[in-house]
Amino acid sequence: MIARGIHTHAVVDCQGDGILPETTILEPGAVIYVSPRGRLVLGERNILYPNASIRIDQGWLITGEEVSFGPGVQIYEPRAGIEIGHHCLIAGGVLICGVHHGLADADQPMRHQPAEARPIRIGDEVWIGMGAIICPEVSIGAGAVIGAGSVVTRDIPARAVAWGTPARVRRLRQSAGKVPWASDGPVRLHLGCGPRCIPGFIHVDAQAHPHVDLVADVARLEIIPDATADLIYASHVLEHFGRWEFRAVLTEWRRVLKPGGLLRLAVPDFAVCAKLYYEHGLSDGLNGLIGLICGGQRDEMDYHKMIFDEPFLKHELQGLGFRNIGRWDWRTTDHAGVDDYSQCYLPHLDKERGTLMSLNLEAER
Predict the structure, then answer these.
(1) Cα gap 301→33, rounded to integer Å
(2) E-strand spans in 256-300?
(3) Minimal CA–CA distance to 220: which of 308, 138, 160?
């Protein structure tokens, strides 16, 4: 029978900043230790089942309301902070640790290697199955489910069901009638959309812009079933993947396309860049060449890792099983009114007399 309040056989040693509401439930063998350098804030009606342990030597842990820590759960080393949302279920044997142990210096004993602290964030209503391991620098979105025994090494989006070692997203927690790609009309995906919204498209991006329907890495679309999309549009996205990565990305996009579905690509045209450089160098008004080749470099994702010209990209698409490959004209599309990089000209915005710097190719699955 669950005892309300702190059980006499639980251990609470809170030397630092600690908030444990009277509604906290600690079952026999539960342990909470907070050092003078630590901080613990539990929400209302949290429960630690037998032998669950929270240890904070330094750093902090904050939880929401009604969070349960199953038997044998271990949470330790939250040096960069661990945040757990409301109504979360953390099953028995789960391990959550906020520190990577260093290994770079082979001349130093392992115990003397410097530790690397990273934050962990777990959203509201997350269920983490028995024996799972949550690694540092991971965010788990609201409503996600992590399968038993999984090792979570990268971010998991909201409402996703993920399992495995490492954990991969397998599906979304939504009925078939509610997923954004379940519709009677054509399914059109706008991958790596950034701040640009195209009406009638499903927007997928790693950043949660207001119009984004699915926050995900566009290279890993495990959430989306095979043969789902009639059209995939990716404008100046593919060049952000390296020379050993881009083929796997194209293969993943082909998987998501229906037979006969269309892949519409736009990438910087290296042949045109080279021609303009040969004719004009990096003269004033043409320094946009640097951004086209190297990326804008405004954030860690804004770097280019690959170059393409038409013969090379056609060859790669054919090798991956695409067919009917050819140029497309942005003026004839239903997203011609959205000024993205498929409409990139030099001099900038001179779409009548300037040079189109984007290689725009379509390919059919």
Answers:
(1) 39
(2) 257-268
(3) 160
Q: Which of 101, 209, 315, 348 is catalytic?
A: 101
Q: Is residue 339 part of a domain?
A: yes
User: b or e along 114-129 (b: 16 or more beta carbons within 10 Å of the residue's beta carbon)?
Assistant: eeebebbebbbbbbbb
List, in sequence order, every residue forming a beta bridge with 205; answer none if it has no partner. Answer: 215
| 137-141, 187-191, 280-284: range with lowest mean pLDDT | 280-284
Do 233 and 110 share a domain, yes or no?
no
Whole-number Cα distances in Å, 156 to 144, 187, 250:
7, 24, 22
pTM score, whole prediction: 0.61
Rounded to the nearest 10°, the torsion over CA 192, 194, 198, 199 is 100
Alpha carbon distance 3, 48 (integer Å): 11
- CATH number for the domain including 346? 3.40.50.150
Q: Residue 174 has what pLDDT?
A: 62
Catalytic status, residue 101: yes
Q: In terms of residue numbers, what domain contains 300?
A: 188-364
C-alpha R_g of the chain: 25
